[in-house]
Design goal:
mainly beta; Jelly Rolls; six-stranded antiparallel beta sheet; globular; RmlC-like_jellyroll
Length: 187
């Protein structure tokens, strides 16, 4: 496995090695000891998976408040997606900044999104399946979001025109300027 630090401190791309031949490939996609030593010393408590049937489906930007704040290790197991993390830690030198990477079944890469970041993605292929490990269980009472297309954040989504397909919930999330104080930056 290889670690690639992204532009936002704490957000890390994990690239598992693949060993292939004419039959296909083998890859260790998660190793607890390696992850704890090289990325974050955390425990994962739940694995989630979702299917987005249509290209241009946007899910997010989501996060959960403490004590259910989640770190997420995200990978794409079918299709392709543009995965995004936005720093929402008040006082952070990168507050309101974002990073995005393309995750696909083909490249096998993963993205670690620590607590204190809003997370979302846009699908780039039909029938895209995302699978992610989380460090805290889902809690509806602690579930929050950030508007996916907030101009002040300025995410450069790879979507054609007005092609985003959103849930009703994601259409009305607050902008960064209206986001209640949710996380503090810890230097």
């Amino acid at each position: 496995m290889k670690r690639i630090d992204e532009a936002l401190p704490g957000v890390v791309r994990v690239v598992p090695a693949r060993f292939g031949d004419s039959r296909g490939y083998f890859s260790e996609v998660f190793k607890d000891a390696w992850f704890r030593e090289n990325v974050a010393d955390v425990s994962f408590v739940q694995d989630n998976e979702s299917l987005s049937a249509t290209v241009g489906t946007v899910r997010g930007l989501h996060f959960q408040l403490a004590p259910f704040a989640q770190g997420k290790l995200v990978r794409c197991i079918a299709g392709a997606l543009f995965d995004v993390a936005v720093d929402i830690r008040v006082g952070s030198p990168t507050y309101g900044k974002w990073v995005g990477v393309t995750l696909s079944a083909e490249n096998g890469e993963q993205l670690w999104v620590p607590p204190g970041f809003a997370h979302g993605f846009a699908t780039l292929a039909p029938n895209t399946v995302i699978s992610y490990k989380v460090t805290a269980p889902y809690s509806a009472a602690h579930d929050r979001g950030l508007l996916w297309n907030d101009a002040d954040v300025g995410i450069d989504w790879p979507l054609a025109g007005d092609g985003a397909i959103l849930s009703d919930k994601d259409k009305v999330q607050p902008t960064l300027a209206d986001l209640p104080h949710s996380f503090d930056y810890q230097a």
